[in-house]
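input
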Amino acid sequence: MNCGVGIEHPYLAILAVVAFTAAVMSVMYLFIHTYTEMLKAPVLSTYAEACYTDSEVYLDVTLKHERGLPVALRRVEVYSDRGTVAYSPSSSPGGIYVELVGFDGRLGVGQVGVVRMVFPRDYFTVGRTYHGLVLFDVGNTVFTFQLVECPQVPTTPPVTFNAKLVDTGTVVGDWTVTALGLARPSVIELYSREKVLYYDTFDSDPFTAGRLVALTCTWSYDPVNKLISVSATSPRPRDYGGECIAVVNRGIPSSGTIYVASTVRALSGRGYADIVLVQDRRALYTLGMYFNPTELYQGYEIWAYTRRWDELKEVKEPTLYNVNYNIVAVYTFDTRYLALWSNRTLVADTVDTRVNPVQVGLGAYVSDDDDKGRGQLWGTVDIAFDNLVVTVDTPPWLIYVRDVPRGWSIVLKDSAGRVVSSNTSIDGIVSLDVWEYFIIPRGTLEVYDDLNRLVGSETFDYIVGGDIYIVNVNVSEFTALLVGVGGSRRILAYNISGGVENPVLVRVVDAGTVFNGYADVAIGLGRIHLLNASGVFRYSFSQGSWVLVTSSCRATGRGARLEVVGGVLVVVPGVGNSSICLYDTATGGASLHPVAEGVFTDYTSTAACGDLVCVSLYDTVNARPVVAAYRVSGSTLSLERLYSTTGYRLLGLAYDCSRR
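output
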């Protein structure tokens, strides 16, 4: 017994030690795991500062990552007098400039980032306390702030200019660009073209460009007269009821009212010139005109094809060959109402439910020799179409001008200066008739006050039926200094009419593109212009947005530069390109001009005065920097003089016009 007891006790001791050790290790593991997870959890801190000027509020939300795993910014909310303003890396609030400084949306341990926001002044009230929320993928923080007056202009110009300079093209090392000139907001601007689904003057072949698609028959393009035509003849197409059809290469909405407008002309033969509303190859509507050289049967007709032709409406009226008819087809989805207009008159309408249009276009159909017109084949019919406009919920024979003071008048002129239409404001809105062709290329809108004095005018590449324009009565010009801040999307617009030593920040503009050498700003024709990889844009003061001027001249590399010389946009595309692109705003034409005096560099600069533009280049033959002075006239560019700048590192140019 004693021996048994002596042997049993060591085993119990060992088991006790093992159990104790396991318990201790479990506690230590739990502690270490808990501590490790605590260290992984991000600890973030946030504070905000805000100051105000007469027109803007500047808010900096500083984010600091104390410890833990990296985090990604998901959303910033600021609770203002005008409601919640929300920003996320994928979307920015309209009218609010937002910039991430010091980070790209992700914060690592020890990293500090700033969300910089610029608001219009009326979003906040001095003396009130405001709150905000920052949400990350893991965790969130809150912040509060009050407004204090900004002690000075938040960002000062990087360089100082002599007041007599009329234009600059200065570049600094971080790709900041500047421009100096007279800014003059437009008296009248395009406000909206959102109701215009499609418009085409056929200045180029719409079929090779893919704008129109021929579903049946062979369609032709006339490059001299800028129109399209088709000969409908035997044998008729097997699909689409035998109609020759060309459709717009995009779908249409499935609600509202669709308008399709075109100018048609019958050249010869007996048949139909139509606007077509297509569901598929077995279902469509045609609304158009019937031409018959025997003059026994003519007029306007609406037909439906659903495996067979059914005449929905017929209005007999004489129709003439080689005469332009401006016609408009109308279709309303909810009521299934069909209507045909011709030269300002409703000529036929009906209601029908058998077709659901998904495409619109133009058509022609060769007639038979009976009175119904959709049977046995009879010869050939030749039809020509000029201009095509498709609108939604607004008639294509009108343009509208809003915010016109009572008693003021708007006059629309074509490119030759002939008056197309005019009207006087009664309730703030003026409508102008554009029944003639529905599109006015290089049209001009003139604004006259109640004493019939010309207040201002603007010429547009195209004035299209369905457009909405806006009059800006309270406009004033000012000497502007623009600063495109390098590495950001900000353009700071200063009023320096009181001198460059006292700049007044009048607006912070979101360029929509980063100033990284591929973008530039310029002032010309009284407008602020922007060059980027998409083309040249003009800033609309009334809308706070950019309007594309041309995509024919664009930035393709670093060192891209823009100047406005008279009515010509001068574009240096940048490194890798060997030509200067000119865009004549008067004609809408673009041209390329090879440069033989040197090559463009990352730091190519430009400056302009009068009809001269200076461009800095690198002369690879003589291994020296040069400045080439070119004279610009319309679509021509000629070398005036070449200057050597050997011994200098040229980072910018300024032209002193007073010494010409």
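quick obs: The longest helix spans residues 2-40.
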